[in-house]
Amino acid sequence: QVQLVESGGGLVQAGGSLRLSCAASVSIFNINTMGWYRQAPGKQRELVAAIIRGNTNYADSVKGRFTISRDNAKNTVYLQMNSLKPEDTAVYYCNAIKWSLTYWGQGTQVTVSS
What we know:
Blueprint: E1 4-7, E2 10-13, E3 18-24, E4 33-39, E5 46-52, E6 55-58, E7 66-71, E8 76-81, E9 90-98, E10 101-104, E11 108-113
Parallel strand pairs: 2-11
Antiparallel strand pairs: 1-3, 3-8, 4-5, 4-9, 5-6, 7-8, 9-10, 9-11
């Protein structure tokens, strides 16, 4: 079992920044795939960014603005979000895939005001 706890969400003005954190209950050293998804009201959950075997992938809508990183020593994955836009408003979820099992956090709300 892997428990994921997100933090760092909040209300920010357009153009501002936030850093989300995802703390895992177990060592993430051997978890090859970790990522961030988001879900806006009335929309499907979508991939924002992922680290897969050390390689990073980003949704086109966030490239150049968001950065995903991981700290294995702290069992934590981060999402640095810069130049935020109102369309980035959503609940952001941390995701981990370990031994073919998928785990989700409870989500953290990010609201960007115009």
